[in-house]
Amino acid sequence: MAHILAISNQKGGVGKTTTAVNLAACLASSGHDTLLVDMDPQGNATSAVGVNSRGLTTSLYRTLIGLDTPDPIALHDRMPNLWILPSNMDLAAAELEFFDLENRERRLRSVLRSLDREFEYIILDSPPSLSLLSINTLTAADRVIVPVQAEFLALEGLSHVTATINRIRQSLNPDLQLLGIVVTMFDGRTRLAQEVIQHLGAIFGPKVFKTRLVRSVRLSEAPSHGLPIIQYEPKSAGAIAYTQFSQEVIHACEEASAWART
After folding, report:
1. For the segment 93-128, what is each residue's pLDDT rounded down to a tens digit?
2. In principle, which of 3, 18, 31, 110 could form an S-S bond with 253, CB 3.0–4.6 Å?
3. Structural fold of domain 3-261
4. Taking phi first (over 0 means left), then psi (-120 to 50 degrees means alpha), and beta for anything else, what does residue 13 get?
């Protein structure tokens, strides 16, 4: 069965979509069949891998409300081993339509259960606010990766994230676990960034991934070309960082699975 990982933080602007897209691409490039699920109505993860959200014949919205069966789009012409369940602005309507549906918090979980034997990793890009879509994301996931920008204001949102994870665990998904916290938009030249790293380590210890996802112009440019950084600029600092991060994630998932079996 697949490792289902939610990339989640209720604070916007911390690099959730960038993390989801590039982690999924790096896992796929390592030979793992990987599904990227775009749970944000803005559809940024969809466009970041070169899929036109306006031209979709089916979408995650139609799947979640039961109009279509899940039909991931293969991206093998550019990214072997990578698929996506794409989204567009129609997904915003799901917030309203879910209220009339049975098991509305578990709609995504039900969709993924029909797919999880086809993939080794399923990466969920969640919306920035606490909504029914983000609740669906956390209810469907096995584990959560929390991206945190290297600034103190971003640290304030961590208490909300951990509280949300605990509430979901108590009420909807008792198996949900925090896989780790990853520092994004990192600039090691600043004292502030180093202080944030120390602060995170003091609170979360080994749950903080060692890889720092660096701030990079190339990383910002890649989505406009519909490519992950490892394809847009494979020798860039961003590509190297995401490749290292993906290996950490693989190791952490293997350790978590081994611990769960004992």
Report:
1. 877 787 777 788 999 999 999 898 899 999 999 987
2. 3
3. Rossmann fold (3.40.50)
4. left
